[in-house]
Give the backbone structure.
Amino acid sequence: MTGRVQYSSSGRSVPVTRVWPTDLQPVLDSDGLVAVRPEGFAVDYDEPFHDDYFWTALFDPAELADGVEIRAVTEVDRHGRATWEATVRPTPAYEPRCGCCALLAGDETLDDRPWVPTVDSVVRLDVQTGICVSVRHVGTGWSGQEAELRIVGVDRPMADELFRPGTLLDRIRNRRRP
Protein backbone atom coordinates (compact mmCIF):
# COMPACT_ATOMS: atom_id res chain seq x y z
CA MET A 1 0.00 0.00 0.00
CA THR A 2 1.41 3.41 -0.89
CA GLY A 3 0.34 6.55 0.88
CA ARG A 4 1.63 10.09 1.23
CA VAL A 5 3.20 11.80 4.23
CA GLN A 6 2.62 15.52 4.54
CA TYR A 7 5.54 17.70 5.68
CA SER A 8 4.07 20.63 7.59
CA SER A 9 7.06 22.94 7.13
CA SER A 10 6.84 23.05 3.33
CA GLY A 11 3.42 21.63 2.58
CA ARG A 12 4.99 19.11 0.19
CA SER A 13 4.55 15.39 0.51
CA VAL A 14 6.53 12.37 -0.56
CA PRO A 15 5.39 8.83 -1.34
CA VAL A 16 5.78 6.37 1.51
CA THR A 17 5.21 2.64 1.23
CA ARG A 18 3.00 1.34 4.03
CA VAL A 19 3.00 -2.29 5.17
CA TRP A 20 -0.09 -4.22 6.25
CA PRO A 21 0.48 -6.20 9.47
CA THR A 22 -0.73 -9.33 7.64
CA ASP A 23 2.27 -9.02 5.29
CA LEU A 24 4.68 -9.55 8.20
CA GLN A 25 5.52 -12.67 10.16
CA PRO A 26 5.66 -11.91 13.89
CA VAL A 27 7.79 -13.87 16.34
CA LEU A 28 5.56 -16.54 17.94
CA ASP A 29 5.93 -18.24 21.30
CA SER A 30 5.60 -21.99 21.92
CA ASP A 31 1.79 -21.64 22.12
CA GLY A 32 1.62 -20.02 18.70
CA LEU A 33 0.76 -16.60 20.16
CA VAL A 34 2.56 -13.43 19.13
CA ALA A 35 5.62 -12.94 21.34
CA VAL A 36 7.01 -9.87 19.57
CA ARG A 37 4.75 -7.53 17.62
CA PRO A 38 6.33 -6.11 14.44
CA GLU A 39 6.75 -2.38 14.90
CA GLY A 40 7.86 0.50 12.77
CA PHE A 41 6.55 3.64 11.13
CA ALA A 42 5.61 1.81 7.93
CA VAL A 43 3.44 -0.83 9.66
CA ASP A 44 -0.18 0.37 9.48
CA TYR A 45 -2.12 -0.91 12.50
CA ASP A 46 -4.78 1.82 12.30
CA GLU A 47 -7.00 0.28 9.63
CA PRO A 48 -9.90 -0.26 9.53
CA PHE A 49 -10.94 3.11 10.94
CA HIS A 50 -14.69 3.57 11.44
CA ASP A 51 -15.96 6.58 13.43
CA ASP A 52 -13.13 6.46 15.99
CA TYR A 53 -10.21 4.39 17.28
CA PHE A 54 -12.51 2.17 19.37
CA TRP A 55 -13.30 0.14 16.24
CA THR A 56 -9.62 -0.01 15.32
CA ALA A 57 -8.85 -1.32 18.82
CA LEU A 58 -11.52 -4.02 18.49
CA PHE A 59 -9.81 -5.40 15.38
CA ASP A 60 -6.31 -4.98 16.84
CA PRO A 61 -6.66 -5.24 20.63
CA ALA A 62 -2.95 -4.74 21.35
CA GLU A 63 -3.85 -2.31 24.14
CA LEU A 64 -4.97 -5.33 26.21
CA ALA A 65 -1.38 -6.69 26.26
CA ASP A 66 0.08 -4.33 28.87
CA GLY A 67 -1.25 -2.36 31.80
CA VAL A 68 -4.21 -4.70 32.27
CA GLU A 69 -4.92 -6.87 35.31
CA ILE A 70 -6.51 -10.14 34.20
CA ARG A 71 -8.89 -11.44 36.86
CA ALA A 72 -10.41 -14.52 35.22
CA VAL A 73 -10.21 -16.29 31.84
CA THR A 74 -12.54 -18.95 30.47
CA GLU A 75 -13.09 -20.46 27.05
CA VAL A 76 -16.66 -20.04 25.82
CA ASP A 77 -18.58 -20.78 22.66
CA ARG A 78 -19.94 -17.63 21.01
CA HIS A 79 -22.04 -18.04 17.87
CA GLY A 80 -20.32 -21.37 17.21
CA ARG A 81 -16.79 -19.94 17.55
CA ALA A 82 -14.20 -20.60 20.26
CA THR A 83 -13.78 -17.42 22.30
CA TRP A 84 -11.67 -16.45 25.31
CA GLU A 85 -13.65 -14.47 27.88
CA ALA A 86 -11.70 -12.47 30.45
CA THR A 87 -12.64 -10.18 33.29
CA VAL A 88 -10.04 -7.42 33.21
CA ARG A 89 -9.30 -4.10 34.85
CA PRO A 90 -6.95 -1.45 33.50
CA THR A 91 -4.10 -0.31 35.75
CA PRO A 92 -2.57 3.17 35.75
CA ALA A 93 -0.03 1.76 33.24
CA TYR A 94 -2.81 1.05 30.68
CA GLU A 95 -2.14 2.85 27.40
CA PRO A 96 -5.11 2.81 25.04
CA ARG A 97 -4.61 3.67 21.39
CA CYS A 98 -6.77 6.75 22.02
CA GLY A 99 -7.80 8.03 25.47
CA CYS A 100 -11.25 9.16 24.36
CA CYS A 101 -12.22 5.82 22.81
CA ALA A 102 -10.37 3.13 24.77
CA LEU A 103 -11.53 -0.48 24.96
CA LEU A 104 -11.56 -0.44 28.76
CA ALA A 105 -13.38 1.94 31.08
CA GLY A 106 -11.41 4.67 32.79
CA ASP A 107 -10.37 8.27 32.59
CA GLU A 108 -7.30 9.78 30.98
CA THR A 109 -6.68 13.45 31.46
CA LEU A 110 -4.74 15.51 28.95
CA ASP A 111 -1.76 16.07 31.25
CA ASP A 112 0.90 13.57 32.28
CA ARG A 113 -1.19 11.73 34.88
CA PRO A 114 -1.76 8.01 34.25
CA TRP A 115 -4.96 6.24 33.28
CA VAL A 116 -7.49 6.15 36.14
CA PRO A 117 -9.38 2.80 36.15
CA THR A 118 -13.08 3.00 36.97
CA VAL A 119 -14.63 -0.49 36.68
CA ASP A 120 -13.88 -4.03 35.51
CA SER A 121 -14.66 -5.01 31.95
CA VAL A 122 -15.54 -8.36 30.42
CA VAL A 123 -13.86 -8.81 27.05
CA ARG A 124 -14.14 -11.69 24.60
CA LEU A 125 -11.48 -12.45 22.01
CA ASP A 126 -12.13 -14.74 19.07
CA VAL A 127 -9.51 -17.50 19.36
CA GLN A 128 -8.89 -17.87 15.60
CA THR A 129 -8.66 -14.19 14.64
CA GLY A 130 -7.71 -12.41 17.88
CA ILE A 131 -10.49 -9.88 17.24
CA CYS A 132 -12.16 -8.46 20.34
CA VAL A 133 -15.78 -9.49 19.68
CA SER A 134 -17.28 -8.23 22.92
CA VAL A 135 -16.61 -5.50 25.48
CA ARG A 136 -18.93 -4.97 28.45
CA HIS A 137 -18.23 -2.80 31.47
CA VAL A 138 -19.35 -4.14 34.86
CA GLY A 139 -21.05 -1.87 37.38
CA THR A 140 -21.89 1.81 37.32
CA GLY A 141 -19.94 5.01 37.10
CA TRP A 142 -18.08 4.23 33.90
CA SER A 143 -17.85 6.14 30.67
CA GLY A 144 -16.87 4.74 27.33
CA GLN A 145 -18.17 2.42 24.66
CA GLU A 146 -19.30 -1.18 24.60
CA ALA A 147 -19.52 -3.53 21.64
CA GLU A 148 -20.85 -6.89 20.49
CA LEU A 149 -19.54 -8.17 17.15
CA ARG A 150 -20.37 -11.35 15.29
CA ILE A 151 -17.87 -12.88 12.89
CA VAL A 152 -19.70 -14.31 9.88
CA GLY A 153 -16.69 -15.31 7.81
CA VAL A 154 -12.91 -15.54 7.96
CA ASP A 155 -10.64 -15.40 4.91
CA ARG A 156 -13.50 -15.68 2.44
CA PRO A 157 -14.76 -13.22 -0.16
CA MET A 158 -17.68 -10.99 0.78
CA ALA A 159 -20.19 -9.67 -1.75
CA ASP A 160 -19.56 -6.10 -2.89
CA GLU A 161 -23.27 -5.37 -2.37
CA LEU A 162 -22.71 -5.54 1.40
CA PHE A 163 -20.63 -2.37 1.22
CA ARG A 164 -22.61 -0.22 -1.22
CA PRO A 165 -24.95 2.66 -0.23
CA GLY A 166 -28.48 1.50 0.52
CA THR A 167 -27.35 -1.91 1.76
CA LEU A 168 -27.50 -3.53 5.16
CA LEU A 169 -24.37 -1.68 6.34
CA ASP A 170 -25.93 1.65 5.39
CA ARG A 171 -29.20 0.79 7.19
CA ILE A 172 -27.29 -0.12 10.35
CA ARG A 173 -25.41 3.18 10.28
CA ASN A 174 -28.61 5.17 9.79
CA ARG A 175 -30.40 3.35 12.62
CA ARG A 176 -27.88 4.74 15.12
CA ARG A 177 -28.54 8.35 14.14
CA PRO A 178 -31.27 10.29 15.97
Q: What stands out?
A: The first strand starts at residue 2 and ends at 6. The helical segments are 53-59, 168-176. Residues 1-8 have pLDDT under 50 and may be disordered.
